[in-house]
UniProtKB/TrEMBL annotation:
GO BP terms: phosphorelay signal transduction system; regulation of DNA-templated transcription
Domain OmpR/PhoB-type positions: 16-112
Protein name in the entry: Tetratricopeptide repeat protein
InterPro entries in the record: AfsR-DnrI-RedD_regulator, BTAD, NB-ARC, OmpR/PhoB-type_DNA-bd, P-loop_NTPase, Sig_transdc_resp-reg_C-effctor, TPR-like_helical_dom_sf, TPR_rpt
Annotated PROSITE patterns: OMPR_PHOB
Sample GO molecular function, one term: DNA binding
SUPFAM superfamilies, sorted: C-terminal effector domain of the bipartite response regulators, P-loop containing nucleoside triphosphate hydrolases, TPR-like
Keywords: DNA-binding, Transcription, Transcription regulation, Two-component regulatory system
């Protein structure tokens, strides 16, 4: 221990005297922090903290500017390093007390610190006292002093501090800490605490596999615990590891110990110095880990948990008062421990008899045994080793007895399950327990359950800013938002990303955002030092049963934002009941979230990890493709069912790709509609996910076609179009004519709905040719039908009539009566445009008869719409209004926003002809509202023109002019001939 780091003298002549409450204190055995009395003060950016750390560790001596620049930046400092150094020093001087940071000979020094001002100095003092106590044979006091010294560590020394000097000091301080640990463990074994030491030594040798002294102590502890074979196995493992890693043999001391164990040397059996235990005295434990200096947000949770803890401090006279227990559950890395420690520190005053803490290692392969934890708790509460019973039940009973009448807070961190926690609960009023776990402890009676979610975007950005620095984030706010979003707003991921950026001054925030943008590399990027998001998830995954792990892997492959129970059952090829049991168990482990009843979702980073597990662990690999194929089948079969319910008699479903996995069945139309719109985003995600594979592309295209109502809904139109384009690109790249024709057919409808008529006609023409070459009749029927109505909009009436006549013929060949009715109604509009009003009415009525005979109410509404137009032109205004109102009701009920808006527009036209301009204006305004974001600019221009006419009719000529001016602008941009008619409305004198 003589080789411990030296620290500055704590007082020098001329030092500043302050009260104890105002004294400055510093920490370097963890994050570099500063306190003024009990209040933590900010220490600035990472580079500023690096300067402070370098000065604190200079033993009170002056460090020259050159030395400090080398400490902060190494051999290649930035060009403005000296100016930056002076800026950091100036900022620190404002933070610290006057006279603490002094300038001397062009350099700087820390002076005038009080006793106990630096945690490293305190640790060194305790280590020196421990050495003296050990020299006098007082091993009990020596162990206590060493534990006090080690207690000053709060994670990695100089955590997050950049620069070569900090890195060198980190290595040195960690080496010293390990030396102290070895000394304390050696004393543990000298006093017969070999059984208790095995667990700690096992963890330490795993963390430091090449440190032979730890291996030697583990061998001795195992041997004295009656585990000779394990002790010899440690030697064999060590010998093999040293040979593989370093090419050397174990040192003589380790070899000698192995030989003594083989000989069963009696001198090894007993400790050299039996424990000398002091009289039992009441002990006030204070075991809470340090709270992080950059704790951010979570105000609602802090208040909620603080309120529960405060209930335990109410007078014991309160009727029915019981111990307060709160159990925090959440995914790994969501900040459960950070929040719990923060809340526990806030509540310390309410628990004057102490605070106990233990990491139960519930997410690891070897969770802590309750009896071991109870032994440690009892000793922390002042119970002598000899008085600690052997059995779990006796220890739990004694633990409750020792706590009786005391007010103690117990923080049980990282619990595996309620069974591990129950024996550790105080059970007496006045005490309280905080439990953190990845598992929701619904079976922990009386516990206040808290589900901790990820941070809000504002909280996430605030945390990122605290670590990286205000200046860097303010200069690149948008990339910073991209970073925290890529981190899924998960605190651990944000902390790792921010720490990496803080340690790399040459990186911009944009550089980090670009690295995190690659999903396949994102988890690998999110690691810094011993912190890694992937490792955190690995702990939870390793605890899963085989069926849970399979579900976790396979469901992570699906692209949608969430997944329904029925869809998950399809992907897993399980019954719905079995699937629900599995998914709910995953929810309890916090690896899956319950988005809503019957719906589940992954956190974004957990999904990436699940996919990595699927690629690594799913055997055979073909099961991944099989699961996604079943999911595609489920969506296609169900969407085809919805399509068939909406369009009775439509033959398209008979010409879709066959499916092996069944879909859902619906009792009536509204339930089918509800499913389609509820699953829209997930369904489209499934379509896109299957665009790349020749084996799935045809089914994906048919699924998109079956769900084409989504293209007219408004809410999903943009996603639908992007998906259709992706499928078209895939089909073309694979040279699949049939698939390309069908993908084009879905796009024709998209362009038609969007008012892009020229593009729609071009795509329809190519789709028709490709479908004819492939002998695929359904696309030929529907593209001919679409080209007919597009030709009407473009005033190409002869072309339109030809296309529609061919469409009617093809529909009849296909035996598709609803398709035939659609073409007849469109032909009615051609006749109407060419002055054949009587035949237009007859054709529309013919379409209605076919639809009504098939029970096709939604498409029957399209026929009534067409008939309403014909009746308006023939002067039968009352009948026209009735037909259009009937159509409007069905379109609203079917969530067809495009046709709802167009029906309102046509009703406004009827109102104008009937001399009701006020009603016309009301209907036109509603049409504009409904058609917002759907229908295209040409249709908007039509509605604006009619609205202007209606407004003029009620005397609002100014508004009318504005509507017509906007309509002219729209028509001019589109090159539409309607612009001339609207200009005539704007300038009637010129038109005359």
């Amino acid at each position: 221990m003589d080789g411990g780091p030296r620290v500055p003298e704590q007082r020098r002549p001329g030092s500043v005297t302050v009260t104890e409450q105002e004294a400055l204190r510093f920490g370097v055995l963890g994050p570099v922090r500063a306190w003024r009395g009990a209040e933590q003060i900010g220490t600035g950016s990472p580079q500023q903290r690096a300067l402070l750390a370098a000065l604190l560790l200079r033993e009170g001596r002056t460090a020259t500017a050159a030395e400090l620049i080398d400490a902060l930046w190494g051999p290649e400092p930035p060009s403005q390093a000296l100016a930056a150094l002076r800026t950091y020093a100036s900022r620190l001087r404002k933070i610290l007390d006057p006279g603490v940071l002094v300038s001397e000979s062009g350099g700087y020094a820390i002076r005038g610190l009080g006793e106990g001002a630096l945690d490293l100095a305190e640790a060194q003092e305790r280590a020196a006292q421990a050495e003296k106590a050990r020299g006098t044979g007082d091993l009990y006091r020596a162990r206590d002093l060493l534990n006090e010294a080690l207690g000053h560590w709060d994670g990695e020394p100089l955590a997050g501090v950049p620069g070569p000097y900090a890195e060198t000091q980190r290595v040195r301080l960690e080496e010293w800490r390990l030396g102290l640990l070895e000394s304390r463990l050696d004393m543990d074994l000298e006093q017969g605490c070999h059984a208790e030491a095995v667990s700690e030594l096992t963890a330490l040798t795993a963390a430091h596999p090449l440190r032979e002294r730890l291996r030697e102590l583990l061998m001795l502890a195992l041997y004295r615990s009656g585990r000779q074979a394990e002790a010899l196995a440690v030697y064999a493992d060590t010998r093999r590891l040293l040979a593989e890693e370093l090419g050397v043999d174990p040192r003589p001391g380790l070899r000698e110990l192995q030989q003594r164990i083989l000989r069963a040397d009696p001198a090894l059996a007993e400790p050299s110095s039996p424990a000398t235990e002091p009289p039992v005295t009441a002990v006030r434990p204070a075991q809470l880990p340090a709270s992080v200096p950059d704790f951010t947000g979570r105000s609602g949770f802090v208040s909620e948990l603080s309120e529960v803890l405060s209930s335990a401090s109410v007078s014991a006279d309160a009727a029915g008062r019981v111990m307060a227990v709160s159990a925090l559950a959440g995914i790994g890395g969501v900040g459960k421990t950070t929040l719990a420690v923060h809340v526990a520190h806030r509540a310390r005053a309410a628990f004057p008899d102490g605070q106990l803490y233990v990491d139960l290692q519930g997410a690891g392969p070897r969770p802590a045994e309750p009896e071991t934890v109870l032994g440690a708790f009892l000793r922390a509460l002042g119970t002598a080793d000899s008085a600690v019973p052997d059995s779990l039940e006796e220890r739990a009973a004694l633990y409750r007895s020792v706590l009786d009448g005391r007010r103690v807070l117990v923080l049980l961190d990282n619990a595996k399950d309620a069974a591990q926690v129950r024996p550790l609960l105080p059970g007496t009023e006045g005490c309280a327990a905080l439990v953190t776990s990845r598992v929701r402890m619904v079976d922990l009676a009386g516990a206040h359950l808290v589900d901790l979610d990820v941070m809000s975007p504002d909280e996430a950005l605030a945390l990122f800013t605290k670590i990286v620095g205000e200046e860097r984030v303010a200069a690149e706010r948008e990339p910073a938002l991209d970073v925290v979003a890529a981190c899924g707003f998960l605190p651990l991921a944000i902390r790792i990303a921010a720490s990496r950026l803080a340690a790399r001054r040459t990186w911009t925030v944009s550089v980090l955002a670009a690295k995190l943008a690659d999903e396949r590399r994102r988890l690998d990027e999110l690691q810094a030092g011993d912190l890694a998001v992937k490792a955190t998830f690995e702990l939870g995954y390793g605890q899963l049963e085989p069926a849970q792990a399979r579900a976790f892997r396979l469901l992570g492959l699906a692209d949608g934002p969430d997944i329904s129970l029925a869809a998950a059952a399809a992907a897993l090829d399980l019954a719905a009941e079995d699937t629900e049991d599995l998914l709910e168990s995953l929810v309890d482990t916090s690896l899956l979230e319950s988005a809503a009843p019957g719906r589940y979702r992954f956190h974004d980073l957990v999904r990436l990890y699940a996919r990595a597990c699927a690629e690594r662990d799913e055997q055979p690999p073909s099961e991944r493709e099989a699961a996604m194929s079943r999911l595609l089948d489920f969506y296609l079969a169900t969407a085809a069912q919805v399509y068939a319910i909406e369009r009775p008699g439509d033959r398209l479903v008979d010409h879709m790709e066959p499916t092996e996995y069944p879909g859902l069945r619906f009792e009536e139309r509204h339930l089918a509609q509800d499913w389609l719109y509820a699953e829209a985003i997930c369904l489209l995600a499934c379509v896109r996910q299957n665009a790349a594979g020749p084996a799935t592309l045809a089914r994906a295209i048919d699924l998109l076609w079956a769900a084409h109502d989504l293209s007219e809904s408004g809410a999903n139109s943009r996603e639908y179009e992007a998906t259709a384009n992706a499928l078209l690109d895939a089909a073309r790249s694979m040279g699949l004519a049939r698939a390309e024709a069908r993908a084009l057919t879905t796009l024709v409808n998209v362009h038609h709905v969007g008012g892009r008529f020229e593009l729609a006609d071009q795509e329809a023409e190519r789709a028709t040719l490709l479908a004819q070459e492939a002998g695929d009749l359904p696309p030929v029927c529907w593209t001919r039908n679409a080209r007919g109505i597009i030709a009407l909009y473009q005033n190409r009436h002869e072309d339109g009539e030809e296309h529609l006549s061919q469409a009617i013929e093809h529909f009849r060949i296909l035996g598709d009566r609803p398709g035939e009715a659609s073409a007849l109604c469109n032909l009615s509009r051609i006749h109407l445009a060419t002055g054949r009003t009587t035949s237009a009415v007859a054709l529309a009525q013919q379409g209605i008869e076919i639809y009504d005979a098939m029970g096709n109410s939604m498409r029957g509404a399209n026929a009534r719409y067409a008939l309403g137009l014909a009746l308006t032109q023939s002067g039968e205004l009352r009948s026209a209004t009735d037909r259009l109102q009937e159509a409007l009701g069905v379109f609203r009920d079917s969530r067809q926003r495009l046709w709802e808006g167009m029906s309102l527009f046509r009703l406004a036209e009827v109102d104008l002809v009937a001399g009701h301009p006020a009603q016309a204006a009301a209907n036109a305004e509603m049409a504009l509202t409904v058609l917002r974001g759907i229908g295209g600019e040409w249709r908007r221009g039509n509605v604006l023109t009619v609205l202007g006419r209606a407004l003029a009719g009620i005397g609002q000529h100014g508004r009318a002019q504005v509507c017509w001016q906007e309509a002219v602008r729209v028509y001019d941009e589109l090159g539409s001939p309607e612009a001339a008619d609207v200009r005539a409305l704007l300038h009637p004198a010129q038109a005359a």
